[in-house]
Amino acid sequence: xxxxxxKILMECLVEQKAETVFGYPGGTILNVxxxxxxxxxxxxxxxxxxxxGASHAADGYFRSTGRTGVCFATSGPGATNxxxxxxxxxxxxxxxxxxxxxxxEPMLGKDAFQEVDLTGIAMPITKAxxxxxxxxxxxxxxxxxxxxxxxxxxxxxxxDILKNxxxxxxxxxxxxxxxxxxxxxxxxxxxxSSTGFKSIDTKxxxxxxxxxxxxxxxxxxxLAGGGVIRSGASAEVKxxxxxxxxxxxxxxxxxxGFPGNDPRFAGFAGMHGSHAANQAIYQCDLLFxxxxxxxxxxxxSPSHFAPNARIxxxxxxxxxxxxxxxxDRPLIGDAxxxxxxxxxxxxxxxxxxxxxxxxxxxxxPVKQASTLEPFEIMQTIESVTGGQALxxxxxxxxxxxxxxxxxxxxxxxxLTSGGFGTMGxxxxxxxGAKVGNPDKTVIHVTGDGCFRMNCNEMATxxxxxxxxxxxxxxxxxxxxxRQWQRAMYDCRFSATTLDRGPDFVKLAEAxxxxxxxxxxxxxxxxALRQAIASGEAAVIDCAIDIDETVRPxxxxxxxxxxxxxD
Amino acid sequence: xxxxxxxxxxxLVENSAGVLSQVSRMFSRKGYNIASLAVGExxxxxxxRMTILVYEDEAQIEQIASQxxxxxxxxxxxxxxxxxxxxxxxxxxxxxxxxxxxxxxIIQMASIFRVKIVDVAHESLTLEVTGDFGKSxxxxxxxxxxxxxxxxxxxxxxxxxxxxxxYDV
Lengths: 566, 169
Prior knowledge:
The complex is a heterodimer of chains A (566) and B (169).
Chain A: E1 2-4, H1 5-15, E2 20-23, H2 30-38, E3 44-47, H3 51-65, E4 69-73, H4 77-91, E5 96-102, H5 118-122, E6 128-132, H6 135-150, E7 157-162, H7 163-167, E8 169-171, H8 184-191, H9 204-215, E9 220-224, H10 226-231, H11 234-244, E10 247-250, E11 265-268, H12 275-283, E12 286-290, E13 310-315, E14 329-332, H13 335-342, H14 352-359, H15 374-384, E15 390-393, H16 397-404, E16 414-415, H17 425-436, E17 442-447, H18 448-454, H19 458-464, E18 469-474, H20 479-488, H21 504-510, E19 514-518, H22 521-534, E20 538-543
Parallel strand pairs in A: 2-3, 2-4, 4-5, 5-7, 6-7, 9-10, 9-12, 10-11, 12-13, 13-14, 15-16, 15-17, 17-18, 18-20, 19-20
Antiparallel strand pairs in A: 1-8
Helix pairs in contact in A: 1-2, 1-6, 3-4, 3-17, 11-13, 15-22
Chain B: E1 5-14, H1 19-28, E2 34-41, E3 47-56, H2 58-70, E4 74-80, E5 85-96, H3 100-112, E6 116-120, E7 124-131, H4 133-144, E8 148-153, E9 157-160
Antiparallel strand pairs in B: 1-3, 1-4, 2-3, 5-7, 5-8, 5-9, 6-7
């Protein structure tokens, strides 16, 4: 049938079963929003307060459901407002298709009103990006974009469509989803060896060598990254841990990939990782790394990382091998696939002494002050929700506390901007997570600095009835920066004290959201129970001390046993 | 592994807008300088081939090659080394030659190096030099004494020796 570009886009979203879109309209994307009007029954659009909120919502939707997120924005400032969200998705391998419109073809390159070269801007922060100037190619571009976003290592893909293309017409032929990989340009891309979309056939000799390497281990450790979650390899990682009788650690992105309440789990590794996890990595003689890219927050000093271990690195992205840390045995492929092939070759091991040695390094938090302490907040959330709440954080001290003091039970339970470290990620992502998981309790853990950035999205949560519960660690400062200033800059607290408004309780109420201030663990528990019972969005403003510190802390570039703060 | 030297990356790409910028950005974001870059269509007009000369250590070159392979318009990447490839570059060099003696001397040199004189004027001679990097550098060193007025080079192109091709990656 002959359809306009805008309607072809809608049909392609329907092909993808993309029922949820977050976005913000504007001049160049008007045709698309006009078409959306006819598809309201099939495509649910959430109008956010700002494009950045929409970008994080689409990201949170993917991270929490595994279904590709979709985000719309108009040209120019609408488009540039997406860029933080695109980069956030890119650094954490999140499958989001960003669809923006640009000026009409005759205006392109003329510095027209609200024109920006978005594909030029987005090139280094997308897995692929397209400028669509031909309506006959639109359907195939959209199909390819969705495929690329979600296959192989996931990542954001941008489609920038010229406005005239959305108005022009072309023949649209529906194509079932399973046919997409056999069709057009996408089929060629998949056939290339370079792209790595073909399930990489790990050579039997590589698996054999890996199996030999683990067979001799006396002190094995598994380091699980976000790839475990994206691959759906939790069960295989658990089997591997049991077979090796290994201690398990994770990167922050990998939290939930292995049950946090399992006795093998030593916490997450890295700058603010647990003492036990960092000791495990420092002392182990075999480190099996799965879907983790050795970021500088995990491998603070690449040359001193796991200095006593031989390292096996399993990753879907060939370019991650030897990028940061030099490894002894790379295994390239999807974590679940490769582990399924490898597991039968691994014989049962037993290392009770090694596990006991690491278990002895576990340190539980101790209450030290009469004021509300960060660990109490996270432990209360865990106990009140039976450890089942979906936690979405912003970035900074509260992000570390949320990672340290909550035992994540299942994959996709913690959504956090681990790679890009985007303050303001949380609220949008929490809305996306709640929309995608209506049956789960979604807790947005934030700080007063981060919440200021994108709290305008309370309007969105209130309007659509998205019951995000915001737990605000309110210490009146940019806590993490202050912590660095205290540790390394002689307490010169330059531009970090937030001795100013707003009153977050009143602010929440102005948006039509219930707000409450708490100062003790008991008050917090009551407020949290009430918020969950209400079934509505809420803000719980938790007063904590300005000098609460994230411990332990290892400075950048140092080995995992070299603490700045312990 | 950590010793820096000249490496050649041969990259097969889709012949479309923005590809050159996408490939060159991969070098700039890592802070690597491209020593030379030559691009042209292949036997298939939908496909271009880039030959990129970079001065880096081996580990970094492998990292760059893996990163390039991830780019959507990149079809294939191959690292070519001196032993397994033929390398050629074309130079046009305009040399100051305002006396009969200097002209004769340059013409003699050109014949030894088997390069062509492609333009003759009263004050200058222009030479067309084809060869690998070493040959052109050697000749340029000699010509410097006469005064090089201007110089342009295509950048190195290279092909693997033997029957193996970039399509075999």
